[in-house]
Amino acid sequence: MRMESNLQKAAEFLKQADKIEILSHQYPDGDTIGSAAALCRALRKMGKQAQIYCNDPFPGKFQYMMEGLTPQSFESQAVVAVDIADTQLLGPRMMQYATRVDWCIDHHGSNTHYAQNWVVDPTAAATTEIIARLIVEMGVEIDREIAACIYTGITTDTGCFRYTNATPATYRIAADMMEKGVDAAYINRVMFDTKSRARLELERRVLDTMAFYFQGQCAVIYVTKRMMKESGASDDDMDGLASLPRQVEGVKVGITMREKEDGSFKISLRSNNGINASEICSKFGGGGHPAAAGCVLHGSVEEARQSIVQAVSLVLGEIQ
Amino acid sequence: MRMESNLQKAAEFLKQADKIEILSHQYPDGDTIGSAAALCRALRKMGKQAQIYCNDPFPGKFQYMMEGLTPQSFESQAVVAVDIADTQLLGPRMMQYATRVDWCIDHHGSNTHYAQNWVVDPTAAATTEIIARLIVEMGVEIDREIAACIYTGITTDTGCFRYTNATPATYRIAADMMEKGVDAAYINRVMFDTKSRARLELERRVLDTMAFYFQGQCAVIYVTKRMMKESGASDDDMDGLASLPRQVEGVKVGITMREKEDGSFKISLRSNNGINASEICSKFGGGGHPAAAGCVLHGSVEEARQSIVQAVSLVLGEIQ
After folding, report:
1. Nearest-CA distance from B21 to chain A in Å?
2. Read out DSSP for B152-210?
3. Are the C-beta atoms of residues B280 and B269 closer than 8 Å to each other?
4. Most Cβ neighbours (<10 Å): which of A67, A219, B291, B296?
5. Closest partner residue to A247 among B167, B195, B204, by Cβ?
6. Is the ipTM beyond the 0.90 threshold?
7. B161–A161: do the CB atoms touch at under 8 Å?
8. CA distance to A288, A320, B98, B285, per residue, from A306 (Å)
9. Do B178 and A168 touch (CB under 8 A)?
10. B172, A169: Cβ pair inside 8 Å?
11. Per-residue pLDDT tens for B298-318?
């Protein structure tokens, strides 16, 4: 297999290398941080110098993966990008690396192969799955700290083993990591069962806006700039909010409208039962995946809502 | 090992038996239904007659496990109880079985050994984990339908692999079941990402009641009879509500007060950071586990809330 032979080559490269810079993508999540931290720890265990760089600071809830990883300063001899599908995702402050990546380790099928070399495995639920194999290939023993990073990438990218991307292999790697001593329940509590007070306040306000259409088959919520400000919520607090309407029993199309800076509305549409979300959004110049798509609408809350609900009615009419 | 030798004996017993009645516990959940349905399917695959009995009907969201299991009527020759720790949990309508259970298959350490024989493995996250081993021991191939039942028990009893009871073995059995063709993402969506409109309405009202104490270390919500009635919520809709307050960042003690028929309040207390929930509740004649306990308080909402918050203040004071 191409991918596995590349994995061996990547391991060979890293075994020879020293003074390695590891890049995470902007707006970093559990998988890019977990991948970077696991790889950095493994390289340092081999006696090498290694350092992680990212356009943005790592959110506080991920800090446990960085514990003990004291900053190192050195002149870079090698650059590895993890979980970065495209150079655009490096972020503006990291753009100088765009043409300098020796190896890219990633699980996005959309990877643009911008690096000199790459290991891209779209069957992996998380990039940390590939990193785990890479570390074994490099001959480094996965310890508890590395295992926690790998588990974090897996659980965050699969929504705690809920999404369709979680495969039997994903579950088995998670099991292997737990045997290294990972406190999976703690990690999952921090990642999935902890809400900021601002998020809670925002959720309360947002639930008040929920409106149902077509005998409950369509649900719409909205978030205004004012609601964000009054609840003290940040962009981080919006995480997963767009999945709320579709969670309601009987809802086939769930819509979240978020007011942007210029007063227009960013529409996130999620669908069940084979309703094509992308098709609906394409009517407004948007697009996306069959079950999750988006577009931008102008006008007041009421006008924007009416436009999108009208478009949904046509699709629901077709399948009724 | 005692447990495994019992598993072999249970398999031997069932291989010899026919006309087998399988019992699930009252207020049935994913694990007791999954265990019963998986075992019933395996026994029927062996050409035996087998039928499931329960004090209560199975909730609609679990019906996929029963698909194709047409009712059979026969004179019982053997009785197996699954996931039932105590005869009290049979429920009033099933009490006639209390002294007639040949084998009990269970994962509760508190099992009272009321059956003639038992396989009790408290290290199993779900009883379906044990049922999976039992079916293999009986020499029956686990098909997709059986696998879906086993996966369901595991994911519901571990809160989608979130709780501390999920072990590496749990993850690996789940992986094995997925390889049999289980649509894990679908099951998890139905179990964890679907809310009734009544539940949503109740949640909205309950969030409005959330009050914080001691610099956000303690959060209290309440549910009155009137809120239940106005939102159209049933007892099923209360599921997991008690974990809401503790999910808020910074909260060490989360309290849910639910008004009972007689106007008193059932208090559910959940704690983090080593605060002993059971100790707090014991002051009011209640009890439970270190991180989850309960008691009953009388008086108005305000009076009940003041009493429990006062008790919490003493404990928070001690550790501050």
Report:
1. 33
2. HHHHHHTTTTTSTT--HHHHHHHHHHHHTT--HHHHHHHHHS-B-HHHHHHHHHHHHT-
3. yes
4. A219
5. B195
6. no
7. yes
8. 21, 20, 59, 55
9. yes
10. no
11. 999 999 999 999 999 999 886
